[in-house]
Structures are given as C-alpha cells and as structure tokens.
C-alpha cells in the first residue's frame, strides 16, 4: 500500500483530503507545518507528498526544496488556493511534479497521484 | 472509483470549530488594529485568518459563507498592500463581516440552514473597494488607452516647464512680459487636457491657479512661490500615474499608501477634528466670555449724565449683541462635545456575544434611546461602568438555559438598556430578567467580609441591603477580560458615577429581575473657576464673574455707611471676608486671617501682609471678597446641588476636583444680594 504525506495547517483540509485518499486505498500520514513535514518525511519515507503552500512559519515551496535536497526523486504535489501563474511556475521550477488548485476535485487528485506513482 | 467529496455532518462540525478559531484570531487582530492602525503584522495575521476560513469554505458548499469570506479576504488583501488604509469605517465594516460570519458559522451544523442576504454588506464592501482602486494609481488608470495618457504626460511636461519659467522670472525680478496673460492661457489649455483624461486632482489644482491669477492685477512674488509649490505637486501626481514619463521613478514602485484623511472623508460625511482644537476653542470662548462680562458691566454702569447719549445707547446695544453671540458660540462649541450614547451601545452586542459563547446561555439584548447625547467626558466615564454592569448581568444575572426553562422562563434571557432624558438629567436603566438579587445573601456576604456590623444588619431594609453591593471589597475579583476593563466590583462603578455628578440605584426581585438605574446630569459642563481658601475650606468662584483679583493692605479698609469698603477705581467697593459671609466664622478668631469687623481695629489678630481680594461682579454691582488664599484656576465639571442644598443662595453648584475633593461654587448673585439684605 502506498503512503501519502498530507501537509496543511488546516485540520479541516487534512481531514478532507484524508477521506479522499483513504477511499482510494492509500495510507495517509499528516503534518500540520513544514518542520513536522520534514521530520515525518525522513521518518516514514512516504511515496508522495501533498503540500499546501500558504502556511505560517514555513512556506510550502521551502519545504519542497528541503525534501528534494535530501531526496531528489521525491514526488511532491502542490495543493494551493494560489491560482496565480507565477506560483505554478515557481512550483514547477523548484521541482514539484504537479500543481492542483483548491478546492480539490477528489477524482482529479487521485488520477494525478496514480499517474505519478505508477509512472515508474 | 474515487469518492466524491461528500459534505458530512462531521465535516461541518470540523469546519465550524476551525472557523471559530480563525474568527477569534481575526477579532483579536481587529481590536489590535483599532489601537495600532500601523501594525502591519496584525493586518497580515488578520488576512491569514480570513484566508483560512475562505479556503475551507470553498469545500463546504454553503455559498453565503463562501462569498462573504472571499470578499473579506479581498479587502484584507488590499489592506495588506496598503491600497486601503486602516481607518475606522473600514474596521467597522470588517467587524460587521466578522459578526455575520460568526452568525453563519453558528448555524452551519443545523439541518435547516438559511442563507443570509448579503446584499447590504456586499454594497458597502464594493464602495470601499472602488474608492481604493481610484486611489491606487497603477490599476484602473493604466488600463485606459495608453496613447492618451502618453500624450497627456508629454504635453503636461511642456506646460509645467513653461509655468516654471514664469514663476522663476518673477522670483528673480526679471518677469516675462505679459506673464499673467500667458499664464492664464497655458493653464486653460492644461486644464482642458487634464479634464479630458479625467485627472481630477490635477484639474482642481489648475482651477485654483486660474482663479487666483484672475483675481490679482499683477503676478507677484507670493503668487510665484505658491505656484512653484503647486507645480511640484502636479509633477508628483503625473509621475505616479505614468511612471515612464519620469524615468527616475522605478516602474515597479508600489502605489503610495492611500491618503488616509481624504479616504475617510470620502466614506463618511463627518469631519475629523483634533480634540485639542476643540479644547482650545473652548478656552478662547471662555476668555471671550470674561471680556463680554466686563463689557456688560461697563455698559450697565454708564454714568447717568450720558446714559441717553446716542453713543452710550449704541454701546449698550452692541454689548448686548456681543453678549448674546458669545453665549451662542459657547453653546455651539458645547454641542461639538456632545456624543450620542449609541457610540457606547455599538460595543454591547459583541460583548454579550463573547460572554455567551462558551456557556450555555442565550441572551437577547435590546438597546433604546440611542440618540440621547451627552458631553463626551461623561460618555467616556460611562463606558467602563456600563460594560461592567452588562457583564454582571450576563455572568451572574441570567441563568443557564436549563435553569431558566426549569423556572418556566423563556430559554433566552433578556437584557435591556434604556436611555431617557428627564429635564436636566439622563437616566440609563439596565435590566435583566435573571435570577435577581437576594437581600439575605447579600447581607450575609457583607457580614462575612466585615463590611457591616451585625447590629446594623438588623435595622436595614431589604432595599437598603441591595446597596451593600456597592461597598468596596464586596465582590470577588472577576476574571479579567479584554473588554470589561480593570474594575473590581461595583464600588468602582459607584465611584465613577459620583465623579461625573451622577448616582446609581438598584432594584431587584428574586428570580425575576435586576435593574441598575444610572442618573447623570446633562449640564455637565466644564466651568472655569478660581479656587480660593477661606475659613479652612476651599471655595470656587466662577471665572466669568470675576472682574479681577487684587491684593490690598488692610489699612485701606474703611467704614462707609457702617460697612467695610475700599476705594476702587473711583468707586466705593464694599468688601467682606468670605469666611464671615459663609459663617465659617468659628475659625475666624483662631485663623490667621482677618476679620473685617472690630478685630481689625482692636488689633486682636496679627496683621497679615497683603490681603487677597476677589472683585466679584453681578450685573452692574461689584463686591470685594477677601479670602485667605487664592489658589489655582481650573476647569471643573460642575454638578447641580441636591434640593436641600440648592436653596442656599450663596452657592450655585458643586464640583469635584481632580484629586476628588468636593468644592462648592459660589453664586455671585447670592453673595452680592446677601450683603444688601
């Protein structure tokens, strides 16, 4: 079973995304900020990361940079309300594999994750 | 197959609790911004709170919460980029939005959720947004056809250079020939193009210049100097609008923060006046009042021989008119200080809501008499006491929902605040239909705290027992909250009421209601008085009745018609000692003051140096009043005397000094007629 790490400061959102992912038979672990995310990533080595951008303390982009520095193969998916083009560009440049905007469409999310996980 | 996102009850609950946290944070930040509008961190934090709500609401499928939080987030974003300033009207709107969101959030878990009509707040938000867009130059205006703007800024540059030359010529004493005619021509052309591209600010400056130049015969130095200032203002405006026209400004310069004053003025039809101005205004009018009185005195004491002279009659006429006008001026300024009680009322709903939030209580609040106005000083003093009383009503008065239903009351408790005016007083009644006060419990509590003797307890009635709660030390320390201030117990409330010359009374019936009744005098004016000491007490003389104060040698006191008097400005001034007038004369013989009767002649009392004398006037009559010492002059809040004291003619009212001492204010009419009687 594949594990997905959800990173978002809103418990509401984490719950929601957990529901979606679990219903598609993924195992889910959660982090509510950047620091927690990095620790969990090292610890549990999830198969993919669903990353919120706008968080207090550490921005999602920075978290992704950190993850990729240690694990260049990491699969990170940015999930954000920021629909602005420059953010999408930023995400791509920093090495995220996909960008999905909130509110998230359950089907679309699962599709993207499956594509990325089973490409290899 | 992936599950579609279903909005479950569990989800709604989660949303609700997270939204509540965000709303609390938002509210906290708004309170901070009320006090520190420059606090950018607070703006940021407020933005993130709303952003959080908005993000979550995108999923919840309830469109009114979604719409409102989006709109509020937009507003907060503009405030973050400083294109909307943090001013009162905007904060008030944000508070409204906050309240609406709270209401919506509250109901979100109920099965029959009714969406709210948001059109009203939507309009207000749009109004603010459009003004913001007008202020921040780089958005709307650059969307206009670039060509027109480019053309305008080019020709503007030329106009400005030409006008600059004209100004320079005048200032260097080598004016250009026919400069006035040329200037008017240039300004007219410039004005036309400015109007065409819709640059209203520039157009108005140009119109000013045009008017000014048409009104003077020759362009002089002062005109030139002002012109230069105005030209540089125009240059600045142009460089902001079209950055490329002045290459020195970087194109990505952020828009200048919106001008706060014009912004606020646009939103309301009121004007901000510095309080210091109003106070200064009042002092000047008080001084004018003194001169008016002096003028009155002069006109009333016109010597008989010339009284019918037309000159004398004109003087009399004019001084009467000045007198009336000064009085009108004074009451107009007093009105400036009037504040509607509604400004305090506005705070109550939120306070009550906050207090009920984490408890099992429901309270409905009714506020009446919003338009009753009082002097702002009184209103300021009222805020803490009223909040305290309301807080008590919610915390200790109104019972929990269950308890109320058990008592066969309606589940929701009622608190009503009613302000009314009766003659010279304003009454504010705060009533709750809660558990009321139990005189027996109060008596026991007072006894326990050592505030009252057992013996006294037996003599007091139930009503009197209720008043025990105003004793210092009676109540336990309430939990400090951000809204109720530092008061501990109702003794602070009672003290505050006395300070403004009012009073507080309480009535209650167990399990039925409790009513606090605050009485305040309306005519709580600041009176300018001169404080003096006589016979060991302090007395105040209204400045407006004092012609002047003099120091005299007691040996110039003579007896005329068997009454002490002195020669004063070609007249005879009757003179008396205040201590004697007020019959505080027990102290006279022992005090080192002078008794103007026999003691002086008999040398019983040691001579003092000079005696301070207040020359008091009433109409055309003058009287000299000797005091022991002249102290300060102060502006004091005067309050009317209760009826038993009010019959004493020598006193008009009383005042509380800054240090809490109570002084009586002398009534000149009473003093002066006293000596004739």
What does the model show?
The complex is a heterodimer of chains A (120) and B (677). Chain A is α/β, with parallel strands linked by helices. Chain A has a single domain (3-117), classed as Rossmann fold, CATH 3.40.50.2300. Chain A is built from five helices and five strands. Chain A has helices at 11-23, 34-44, 60-70, 85-94, 106-117, and strands spanning 3-7, 27-31, 48-52, 76-80, 98-101. Chain A has a five-stranded parallel beta sheet, with helices on both faces. With 677 residues, chain B is α+β, with helices and mostly antiparallel strands. Chain B has five domains: 9-136, Four Helix Bundle (Hemerythrin (Met), subunit A) (Up-down Bundle); 145-251, Four Helix Bundle (Hemerythrin (Met), subunit A); 275-336; 341-521, Histidine kinase-like ATPase, C-terminal domain (Heat Shock Protein 90, 2-Layer Sandwich); 526-676, OB fold (Dihydrolipoamide Acetyltransferase, E2P), CATH 2.40.50.180. In chain B, 51% of the residues lie in helices and 18% in strands. Chain B is flat. Classes of the chains: A alpha/beta (120), B alpha+beta (677). The interface between A and B is medium-sized, with 22 and 16 residues.
Secondary-structure class of chain A: alpha/beta
- Overall CATH architecture of chain A: 3-Layer(aba) Sandwich
SSE string of chain A? EHEHEHEHEH
CATH architecture of the largest domain in chain B: 2-Layer Sandwich
How far apart lie the N and C ends of chain B? 108 Å
Q: In percent terms, what proportion of residues of chain A is strand?
A: 15-25%
Major sheet details of chain B: 6 strands, mixed
Major sheet of chain A, described briefly? 5 strands, parallel
Mean pLDDT of chain B: 78
Alpha carbon gyration radius of chain B: 35 Å
Distance between the termini of chain A: 16 Å
| Largest interface by Cβ-Cβ < 8 Å | A-B, 22 and 16 residues
Helix content of chain A: 40-55%
Unreliable segments of chain A (pLDDT under 50, ≥5 consecutive)? Answer: none
Q: Count every beta strand of chain B, where a strand is a DSSP E run of 2 or more residues.
A: 18
Large-scale geometry of chain A = globular
Number of domains in the coordinates of chain A? 1
Annotation field: number of helices of chain B:
25
β-strand number of chain A? 5
Numbering strands along the chain, what is their spatial order in the largest sheet of chain A?
2-1-3-4-5
Full CATH superfamily name of chain A: Response regulator
